[in-house]
From TrEMBL:
PROSITE patterns: SIGMA54_INTERACT_4. SUPFAM superfamilies: Homeodomain-like (SSF46689), P-loop containing nucleoside triphosphate hydrolases (SSF52540). CDD domains: AAA. It comes from Cetobacterium ceti. One of its GO terms (molecular function) is ATP binding. Keywords: ATP-binding, DNA-binding, Nucleotide-binding. It holds the Pfam family AAA_lid_14. Residues 247-471 form the Sigma-54 factor interaction domain. One of its GO terms (biological process) is regulation of DNA-templated transcription. This is Transcriptional regulator containing PAS, AAA-type ATPase, and DNA-binding Fis domains.
């Protein structure tokens, strides 16, 4: 089998970095498939399906004819005849280019567009996209770190439609393409000159060379002390404005998140927001809505957790029985955005109806048996892996591919350690205004405790904590005001170090016992416990019996 480990070994990370950079520049997804049809590398959603067989007829034709192929209309193209995935294909355009190793074919590099806007852009610049795929193929063929690298990169730079330049660690220009040169009117010589680089916002920069300044919108990619900037002139009228609270911070993870929010706000495809408890997925959904052209239209929120299936169906699609006409969330959000949170709790029958709406954009009219077209963007949220639910047959595979093509993973505060100072300052300022207070000082020990605390409840926990501190202090936040559970954390860690190591079975028994005491022992409570523990009901009952937990419970009464 032609596996990834057998090929690129130590170059694997570099190849993934190259593919990711090109995918972001071109705003598409890219995958590399072997001669045997195995997906070796991929960006975006397809990165979750590595080392699996890819059944794309176009790739078979590319390898047979040894020439580039384009599928402009997937599902309708002759190249898609016989494809097993045709009925639920989500691609809008597909390009395939053969790759060689030592003049022997060994695979295909594919470019995948998932939206109509991506399709139109690729078709408009088809020559440039094909040449770029060939460039990536050459980079792989040259194994990235050979003498051919510079020549290949220059080929890409000079032919890229957007402006691009490379600077070294001191900001000195090493390379620049024709499009970039054209933006700095009056300058003839660039290499060796210093670039003054000022980041104004997430993707908005001021670039200055020898006194000539240009405001641009673009992206940066850094590797081995060098930075590549790919950009276009910034149009003030097209600027996307982002909400503050949840997007503040200078960490790399937040830079990436701001970039993703800007990208998805410009399209109308469904989005999957995945995040742990407390990251406030609803707030991020609201940010995406208000950053898009749909701002000013309704933003409707529905949570699937602990809602009976019939009631949930009524909330989303409305009631259309005689004598009972109720507008559903899809129709109430017309022209705007519907956020369906905790979609992992949605039953399969409702999933089928949602998939039908996403495919056709139509629902039953409230006034008759006929259907009406409703233009509502759908965002879904969950803290579960929908792919895992698909594999467990709890989530429709077709619906997964419909909503998860654009997935944004919301970072926990644990991943945003370097942002905690800014977050605390922002929240103190926010609640000082709310309570009309002037906070003059923050005791260092108190601030250090908050910055280093492990915020398992994420944004909601830190916001509630700061609101409490500001509301209860006079003008200074001191150590004695900090909640006891935060102050006791260090002492708790010391206790943990001295605790004996317990057998896993003992720990598991105690967790189940505690859950039964807290939640209850009836059937419905056990269903909730099983879900929280991530096990099935049969497994829960078996463990209760094996650990003789019923006896423990009787002794407690």
């Amino acid at each position: 089998m032609f596996m990834r480990e057998a090929i690129f070994n130590e170059n694997e990370e570099q190849i993934m970095e190259i593919l990711g950079n090109f995918a972001r520049v071109l705003d598409v997804e890219i995958e590399v498939v072997s001669n045997e049809g195995i997906r070796l590398f991929a960006t975006g959603l397809f990165g979750e399906r590595l080392n699996k067989k890819v059944r794309e007829p176009i790739y078979e034709v590319v390898l047979k004819d040894l020439e580039s192929k384009i599928v402009e209309n997937p599902r309708k193209s002759k190249l898609c005849l016989g494809c097993l995935n045709k009925s639920h294909c989500v691609k809008e355009i597909l390009l395939g280019v053969p790759i060689y190793e030592n003049n022997k074919k060994w695979g295909v590099i594919g470019l995948l567009g998932m939206t109509e806007s991506q399709r139109e852009r690729v078709l408009k610049n088809i020559g440039e996209y094909l040449e770029t795929l060939k460039t990536i193929g050459k980079l792989i063929e040259e194994k990235i770190f050979t003498k051919g690298k510079n020549k290949i990169y220059k080929e890409f730079f000079y032919n890229l439609g957007e402006g691009s330049l490379v600077i070294d660690e001191n900001g000195v220009i090493e390379d620049i393409n024709r499009s970039a040169m054209g933006m700095f009117m009056g300058l003839k010589y660039f290499q060796g000159r210093k670039l003054e680089f000022l980041r104004l916002e997430d993707n908005i920069f001021n670039l200055r060379i020898s006194g000539v300044a240009v405001k641009v919108k673009g992206k940066t990619f850094s590797s081995e002390g060098r930075t590549m900037i790919v950009f276009e002139r910034f149009d003030e009228n097209n600027q996307v404005k982002l909400s503050e609270d949840f997007l503040l911070g200078k960490s790399k993870v937040m830079e990436d998140l701001r970039r993703q929010v800007i990208q998805v706000s410009r399209v109308n495809t469904p989005i999957f927001l995945r995040g742990a408890v407390g990251v406030d997925k609803r707030a991020f959904g609201d940010i995406i809505h208000n950053s898009s052209e749909r701002r000013g239209k309704p933003f409707v929120y529905v949570n699937c957790r602990d809602v009976l299936e019939r009631k949930l169906e009524k909330k989303i699609f409305g009631e259309h029985l005689e004598g009972s006409l109720e507008i559903g969330a899809i129709e109430r959000a017309r022209g705007g955005t519907l956020f369906i949170d905790e979609i992992d709790s949605m039953g399969v029958e409702i999933q089928k109806k949602l998939l039908d709406y996403l495919n056709r954009g139509r629902i039953k009219s409230r006034k008759s048996e006929s259907e009406i077209e409703v233009n509502t963007r759908v965002i879904v949220g969950s803290n579960e892996s929908l792919l895992t639910l698909v594999e467990e047959h709890k989530f429709l595979e077709d619906l997964y591919y419909k909503v998860a093509i654009t997935t944004i993973v919301l970072p926990t505060l644990e991943r945003r350690r370097e942002d905690m100072g800014d977050i605390i300052d922002h929240l103190v300022d926010k609640y000082s205004k709310k309570f009309n207070k002037k906070i003059e000082a923050f005791e260092k020990k108190a601030l250090d405790l908050l910055i280093n605390h492990r915020w398992t409840g994420n944004w909601k926990e830190v916001e509630n904590t700061i609101e409490f501190l500001v509301s209860t202090c006079d003008s200074k936040i001191t150590l004695d005001l900090i909640p006891a559970y935060i102050k006791n954390r260090e002492g708790h860690l010391e206790k943990m170090k001295s605790r004996r190591i317990r057998r896993l079975a003992e720990v598991e028994r105690d967790e189940i016992l505690n859950a039964l005491i807290q939640q209850g022992q009836d059937t419905e409570s056990k269903k909730i416990i099983a879900k929280k523990l991530g096990i099935g009901m049969a497994t829960l009952y078996r463990k209760i019996e094996n650990y003789q937990i019923d006896k423990f419970l009787k002794n407690l009464k």
